[in-house]
Amino acid sequence: METVVIPANTSVRLEIKISSDAIVGSYVSLNDNVIKRSQQYRFFVDLDNSNDLNNSVLSSVSNFFVAMGDIDPIMNTTKVIYTLKFGGEEIVFEGDKVKINEDLFMAFFIVKLVTV
Q: What is the maximal distance between C-alpha atoms in the chain?
């Protein structure tokens, strides 16, 4: 798990951009508690002040359903970009993808947030 160092007393926002031909459902969690659900291909989550996020684990998972056709080319061309924004800075992550079965795959990312 990657650690992201965030300056104290800054607002933190997560932006998620998805490019896919599949049907998508996404979840954002903070310390294993779901804080946002979305079926959008682009959305934002305002997390909180960085002081309240120290030593928290931020994760997101998007599930992709392919009802018709070959899942492999759709999975290969799907992009999920997670952008963590704070204090005028941006850190960009690309989601890892995993094929679950012939109709479903997922993309995810997990980071630990540390405030200094």
A: 48
Burial of residue 29, with CB atoms counted within 10 A of its CB: 0-12 exposed, 13-18 middle, 19 or more buried: middle
Quick: pLDDT tens for 51-91.
999 999 999 999 999 988 899 999 999 999 999 999 899 99
Please report the DSSP string for the chain in residue order.
Answer: -EEEEE-TT-EEEEEEEEE-SSEEEEEEEETTEEEEEE--SEEEEEEEEGGGTTTEEEEEEEEEE--SS-HHHHHHH-EEEEEEEETTEEEEEEPEEEE-SSSEEEEEEEEEEEE-
**Rounded distance between C-alpha atoms, residue 29 and residue 9, angstroms:** 21
Residue with tokens 């490019």: 19
DSSP string, 48-68: EEGGGTTTEEEEEEEEEE--S
How far is residue 21 from each of residues 3, 42, 66, 76, 94, measured CA to CA in Å? 31, 14, 8, 11, 17
Predicted model pTM: 0.90
93 beta partners: 82
